[in-house]
Design a protein that fits this description.
45% of the residues are buried. The chain has one domain. It has helices at 7-10, 13-16, 25-35, 42-58, 74-98, 106-132, 137-149, 155-166, 182-207, 219-264, 291-296, 303-308, 332-339, 342-360, 368-371, and strands at 3-5, 63-65, 271-273, 276-277. With 379 residues, it is an all-alpha fold. α4 crosses α13 and α8 (155-166) crosses α9. It is 60% helix and 3% strand. A hairpin with a 2-residue loop joins β3 and β4.
Length: 379
Amino acid sequence: MITSVPTAEMNRVSHALPFWLSLALVPIAWIGAFYGSWTVFLLPISTWYLFSLVDAALGLEEGNPDPNSDADLSWYKAITLIWAPVQFLTLFGIMAYATRADHLAGWEVFFLMANLGVMSGTIGITYAHELMHQKNRLERWMGDILMAMAMYGHFRSEHLLVHHRYVGTPRDPVTARYNEGFHRFFPRVLKGCLLSAWKAETGLLARKDKPWWDLKNPFWRYGALQLGLLVIAFLIAGWLGVLFFIVQAFVAIWQLELVNYVEHYGLTRKHLGDGKYEHVQPRHSWNSAHKASNWLLINLQRHSDHHYKPDRRFPLLQTYEQDEAPQLPYGYPVMTMLAMIPPLWRRYMNPRVRDWRQRYYPEIEDWGPYKTASNPMPR
């Protein structure tokens, strides 16, 4: 049952503090570096399994703040702003320590690399996503730095210029198709996101009579930031540092695209004819009100409202009832683990997609073009 959250409660520091739980991952990462052995797996254990258990214990958070309130959001914004330097120091600090530590075997160093990617993907990219939607230049720069740590700077261009505009249509590479397993989706989206981001940015420049190599093309910034971080990695630990950085970046990207896969799987906007599609509504994203994972992911799981109102900051995002938006059975930690096992994923989600079609679009008789993304490209 949806309830309202008073502005006075939103103003309390205690209401914002659960969203700072991500800082607990920093000492957990260092424990893995100091002690090695099984402790190198503490980061995925904490983010995937522990938060899944806490979700089950705490249940749902169905309180909605007034999106037009004048609540003081300083404590909420602060955690996203400080995360870039926190992640930078943690990543490169552990890199410097682990690549010189005599007590760590090669496999332990490798899994430290990979599991730091769980942190930079689960937290870093989630915070970058919040920051890139803001107009403040500092916030956008912090978002770009976080995405550079994942070697995925072009995500900002793709997300803002393509995904939000074309979600649920054949032009959006990030909308996972019905029956498309994650392991087929992942290589398709890696290529599709890069190409669509490049096409969107060069198209903007062309409309201003500027060539692709113009310095206002943000790909120059993305490349410079990523190259700069690789140089820092090399200076710290040579080619092993570069490998360390690339491995954690790949895992971070894997985490991001797992979440993208879950957020829109099988959901499509109705084609109205002649390349026109209905406006984006809450029903075009999967919603989840699970309390603990929304603390960890700063309400990213209230994704239905994020697409409906992309400029709304995370503390003000709304959750929805089943008749307004489709609901995931679990939070993202469980759902992303299910997504890596396609038969299990289809068992859970395909019936829900079919129910969604019947609930919202009973008039559509032929879902074939929607399943294969073969409807006309949007204008």
